[in-house]
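Issue 218. Parser rejects a valid record. Input:
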Amino acid sequence: MSHSRLDELDTFDQKLIVLLQGNARQTGDQLSEQVGLSSAACLRRVQRLRKIGAIEREVAVISPEFQAKSTSIIVFLTVSRLDPKRKQILTKRLLAFEEVERIFSVTGEDDFVLFMKFPSITDFTDFADAHFYESPIEGYESTVVLREFIRD
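Output the parser choked on:
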């Protein structure tokens, strides 16, 4: 039987992770009320989760009203058959663009899903024309995000 890193987390740890994904700025008292442990125990567990890498980083979700790049685009990329090393090179190349926020390698008809932000649709079109017609990219489809909903 293989050992998973998830085995290192008990039910309390898993609850804390879910709560922190919604709001990483919760106090020990707030976490304590929701998890059923003391405030100090919650904070010790959160520090341990950071130390073991269960929490990689904490980010700020900026309101679109305060962002210069307010047009979110989801891009579905199809690429030619790539070995793992070339896939890594392509991913690294795409992540070098500040417009690319996240990349997911996925199953199905598409190979990658990119979450991107631009000041306008025209800026996205210019970017796509400049970068999505290069090998090994075979094609792309894009979807404009109209509204984003985030779990509290």
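Fixed in the parser; the record now loads. The CA atoms of residues 32 and 39 lie 5 Å apart.
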